[in-house]
């Protein structure tokens, strides 16, 4: 019966006292935010691994895209308020948005240009061009509808539904966080899958395709509710009025710049010839707030690096959380999870405690604390980066070569390198670490058992090689293998190769990957395997099939597996670690995310609240535009600083950003100290009073004039 009541109540234009239309708007917003944050979560890794861009270019394009997403809302607001109205703007730009997401998904299809089916696109410029078209359309779409959807939702309520409208905005922001949280968990899982027609690759088409589908759903849901919406006609945009008034004041001031004209109290007063006193007073209040916005972009410069630098940092870490394997781009979910927890905790516990301590924690002080905390978060990120750097292998320069020795025999081996370094003794079936030499011809003297041999090895510059040494019955065999690896495997994958230490040839399969047939004392090339797995190794010789389950190699390592024996259907293998796995755990990123989220709670929420409290209600759109502009400028700052700093160490770049924000924080604190809080309602009341007095005076003059006329 309760279900029946629900359906009957919802047949009315309202449901539970709310206009039915807002439910379509909330579902629309959830799907749109899922689409945007889902695509953005995997974007920087798509640039790095699919388009093969380096970290700096990936970061630069990522922040250019985010900046564009925060510049276009001003365009969206102008279109909606001055031309199409909110409904038509949302529909038309959502279509643009959906096309953009679809183009993005198509751009990531590997088989689009992979003619030779080798697993990598043959014509990367085609993929880059499609990606850029897709991203520009997405930026136009998401930015264009951003200022319209919440305002359109607010339009659905009558004047007597203030309580419902307030609750709608709470549910609206909850749907934003829910969409963001779910998509940041789901799309990285989709990206980690393998898909493809001819060769299996990371599934970017699915990771971008699901957000595209959600955007299409968002559009359809929004259009279905069309008949129920209250559609307000475009009223003209306040930002246009404000811009015209400021422009006129500047032009008029410039025209009357000679000393013959008396100075006016404020430069905006030069607009009084054309614009009324009320508008000028309102713009003065807005400009006072916008002046305080000048230092704020630096906060966003740090905050938005969660999706770029911090995600790239996570790719060099260990994401093994026991039963769960966390993808690098999933670490971004820590932020929305903590936001959901921290906002009520800060409001209900932290602020009341500060109040009890009789500390006057004004909005501007909160913003200053937020900036300081964000700076602290980057110091934490730098400390984590220092620990990561300690675990990274040192690869040879162009003038150097590195060599390691594996003893494949049963006797110990001693190798003399002449005057280069001290002699090295290697136990049976063991190996050395990589040793660094100058790139040149190297003479070696090798002793094992009662045998000695001399050999010359050419050490090419900028490469690593492995020397397999085995004391056979007749002589000492020396086998040289070129490693062809000069960087750590990406995305937590492992590189595996085999050395055949059997007297017979062997065919090897590991998991579902087959290696070429290996002759005795020869090595295979490295092949890529997902991290954290324990794959089965199968070896087939002329007379027998043997197998063994390989040990778990962790994440981001390179290993050589030596096959020593195949008997009783079991392989006897030894392992030699060429590159150690990622050992710094992703959990070490949680403190920096926690500090940054605390910063966001006291900075972002307070910032908008403060803005609205310091300006008249009809100027909210101008302040919203200004606020979004600070985010855009913040992302542009990342481009400038990262491009101009030329720092080779990532930890140093984190410290640079932290220092810059700290300096800006001090400047903001000084500006805040001299700021005088105003009450817009008081200013409005004073203006009303002045207008009333002016009208009364005009009325008195008119009456006196009428009296005088009648006496004549």
Automatic annotation (TrEMBL):
One function term, GO molecular function aspect: oligopeptide transmembrane transporter activity
The UniProt record lists the keyword Transmembrane: yes
Gene Ontology BP terms: protein transport
Region Disordered, annotated ranges: 687-712
InterPro entries associated with the record: MFS_trans_sf, Oligopep_transport, POT_fam, PTR2_symporter_CS
Subcellular location: Apical cell membrane; Membrane
Reactions catalysed: L-alanyl-L-aspartate(out) + 2 H(+)(out) = L-alanyl-L-aspartate(in) + 2 H(+)(in); glycyl-L-proline(out) + H(+)(out) = glycyl-L-proline(in) + H(+)(in); L-methionyl-L-phenylalanyl-L-methionine(out) + H(+)(out) = L-methionyl-L-phenylalanyl-L-methionine(in) + H(+)(in); glycyl-L-aspartate(out) + 2 H(+)(out) = glycyl-L-aspartate(in) + 2 H(+)(in)
NCBIfam families attached to this UniProt entry: 2A1704
Recorded family membership: Belongs to the major facilitator superfamily. Proton-dependent oligopeptide transporter (POT/PTR) (TC 2.A.17) family.
Protein task: Electrogenic proton-coupled amino-acid transporter that transports oligopeptides of 2 to 4 amino acids with a preference for dipeptides. Transports neutral and monovalently charged peptides with a proton to peptide stoichiometry of 1:1 or 2:1. Primarily responsible for the absorption of dietary di- and tripeptides from the small intestinal lumen. Mediates transepithelial transport of muramyl and N-formylated bacterial dipeptides contributing to recognition of pathogenic bacteria by the mucosal immune system.
Protein name per its UniProtKB record: Solute carrier family 15 member 1
